[in-house]
Every structure is written in C-alpha cells, then in structure tokens.
C-alpha cells in the first residue's frame, strides 16, 4: 500500500520547487541549460509531474487546492524561463555587436581595380600613333585670350567664322583683355610656335568648349586632338600621307577621301572621310597652314610651310565602339563604362 501524504506536505513541496526553480533558472548560463531545466521541471517525468502524481492520494476535497497551486507554479516557471531566455539572447546579441562593431565612417580599404575611360583610351591611342610618326605632345591653357583663340589664327573680330565657334566668355584678365574658354586646341600651336622656331611637329590634345545645345551628337564640352607640322618644303602630299596613315592605323585599312572645305587658318583646306561600314563618314578636317598665320608669328612663309589637322575625340570613340549618344560618355554610368 502506498504511503499516505498530507495536503501540507504537497504544498511545502510545491513551495520548495518554486524556490529551487527560480534559483536554477536565474543561474542558467545559456539557452541549452534553460531547455534542460524546462524538461526537468515541467516535462512528463519532471518534478512538477511527480508532485501532481502524488495528489491522487489526497482526499477528494483537497485535490483542487493542490491542482490550483500547481498550475500557478507552472505559469510562474514558464514565465521565468521566458524572461531568462530573453536576457540570455539579448546579452549574446550585445556581445556580438561589441565584437563585430563596424565603423561606417572609416575609409574603405578596398579599391576596386579600374581601367581607362573610353575617351582617355582613345586619346592615348591617337597620341601613340602620332608619336610613332615623329610628333611630340604639346599642351596649353583652357582659358584663353581672344588673340590666341581667334585673331592669331586669322579670325579677326566680326569674321563670320566666329559664329561657328561661339564660346563661354569670362571676366577680363589683369591686362583688361577678353578671356574665354578655348573653342579648339589650335591656340596651342600658336603658343608653341612663339616659343619654338621651326621645324616643328607637335600633336595637341585637350578639352575644348563651345556653346552647343546638348543632344546625341553635341556637347558644350568635348575633346580635340590637333596636329601641326612646319618645315621646309612641306606640301599637301605630306599632309595627305600623314592623315591617311593615321586613319588607317586607327580604323584599319579603309578607303580615305579628301573633300575641299574651308578653315580660316588653312589654305587649301579639306574635310576627310573614311569608308566605314558601307558609307562615307566625316572624321576630321585639315589643310595647309595659311601664310597669313605664319606672317603673324614672324615666320617667313616663303621658306617655311606646314599643315595642320584636327579631330574630335568623342567622334572617333563613338565610331570605333558604335556608341549612339555622346552623353553616355559623360554620365559616369558604370553599366556603360564597364563594357570597355
């Protein structure tokens, strides 16, 4: 026969279990230990189940008191387990955050490898070809005077050619002279000839500016490369041979044609086309240096003669790569630039 048990004994056991559970749960070090405590206290074979099993030996009228007390204890234990689990998880998260702190203001240590912008790559290829032909690079300022940008190039005030190269004007310089953003790199040629007597063979790359409306083929800021050769005995055949050699090295062995044209600083002048993908495409202008330009520089046109040629870098780049809109070259869109 099973031993008798009293209501007081079961009540004391439940009180003792409550105190032990609170202490054990408070001392639990991790979620796994909490789970084991839950099984030991509230599981089918746990301590609370053992107390409830003994309740069957009590008189019928006393059993509800023990059952009610056991339910309260069960809810308290579950609440303590939940609170302690939340504390452990919060503490673990705080520790992880402290260990893995990331200073978002620190500079990036990784710099992804880059490559040449298609415009820069085109300029470098053009310069490399002319360097192989014996030319050297010469550069000049982007902010120019009216003299270097127009007058010294045989474009005096009120000349109709100025309408073709409307630009951006700046406040007058210290000498009171008119200042502007250069419309071509031809001023580099004038500055070079002032400082270097002939013979001369230079190629002048750089950024230029014109008041053009922005569209698929025009931009107020673009790039040019101009060529100047000045020596004794140079004639149009030298110009034709130089330009043809350059174009065929850049585009491949394609037909090249010269068409008569007009530029204020060359005479005679020509536009140059290449046969590209089944049609003639205008790519650059050229001509023999006008004797008036040489005379303005104090160079004897009877002894010295030369030729000049100029091209738009954007046009060469767009033709080479099949780009349909010049604006793509200036938007810094990586989806576009990563193709090159």
The order of strands across the largest sheet is: 1-5-6-10-9-8-7
Q: Cα distance, first to last residue?
A: 94 Å
The main pleated sheet reads as: 7 strands, mixed
Rough outline: rod-shaped
Whole-number radius of gyration? 44 Å
Residue runs with pLDDT of under 50 for 5 or more positions: none
Number of helices: 11
Q: How many DSSP E strands? A: 10
Structural class, by secondary structure, is: alpha+beta
Strand content: 15-25%
Strand/helix succession: HHHHHEEHEEHEEHEEEHEHH
Mean pLDDT: 89
Helix content: 40-55%
Keywords:
340 residues; alpha+beta; seven-stranded mixed sheet; three-stranded antiparallel sheet; rod-shaped
Q: Could you explain the architecture of this structure?
A:
This protein is of the alpha+beta class and 340 residues long. The chain is built from eleven helices and ten strands. β8 (266-276) and β9 (279-289) form a beta hairpin. α1 packs parallel to α4 (63-99) and α5 crosses α10 (313-321).
């Amino acid at each position: 026969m099973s031993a008798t048990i009293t209501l007081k004994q079961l009540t004391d056991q439940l009180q003792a279990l409550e105190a032990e559970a609170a202490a054990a749960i408070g001392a639990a070090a991790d979620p796994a230990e909490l789970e084991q405590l839950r099984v030991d206290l509230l599981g089918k074979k746990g301590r609370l189940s053992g107390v409830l099993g003994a309740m069957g030996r009590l008189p019928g009228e006393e059993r509800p008191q023990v059952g009610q007390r056991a339910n309260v204890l069960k809810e308290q234990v579950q609440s303590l387990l939940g609170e302690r689990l939340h504390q452990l998880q919060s503490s673990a998260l705080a520790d992880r955050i402290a260990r893995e702190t990331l200073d978002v203001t620190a500079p990036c240590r990784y710099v992804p490898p880059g490559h040449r912008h298609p415009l820069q790559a085109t300029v470098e290829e053009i310069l490399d070809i002319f360097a192989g032909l014996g030319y050297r690079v010469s550069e000049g300022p982007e902010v120019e005077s009216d003299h270097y940008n127009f007058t010294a190039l045989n474009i005096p005030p009120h000349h109709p050619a100025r309408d073709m190269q409307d630009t951006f004007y700046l406040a007058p310089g210290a000498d009171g002279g008119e200042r502007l953003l250069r419309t071509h790199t031809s001023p580099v040629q004038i500055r070079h000839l002032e400082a270097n007597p002939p013979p001369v063979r230079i190629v002048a790359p750089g950024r230029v500016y014109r008041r053009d409306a922005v569209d698929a083929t025009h931009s107020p800021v673009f790039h040019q490369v101009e060529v100047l050769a000045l020596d004794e005995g140079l004639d149009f055949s030298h110009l034709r041979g130089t330009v043809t050699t350059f174009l065929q090295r850049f585009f491949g062995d394609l037909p090249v044609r010269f068409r008569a044209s007009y530029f204020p600083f060359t005479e005679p002048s020509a536009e140059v086309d290449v046969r590209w993908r089944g049609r003639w495409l205008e790519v650059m202008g050229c001509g023999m240096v006008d004797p008036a330009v040489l005379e303005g520089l104090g160079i004897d046109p009877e002894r010295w003669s030369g030729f000049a040629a100029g091209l738009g870098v954007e046009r060469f780049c767009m033709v080479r790569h099949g780009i349909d809109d010049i604006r793509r070259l200036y938007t810094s869109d990586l989806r576009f630039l990563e193709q090159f």
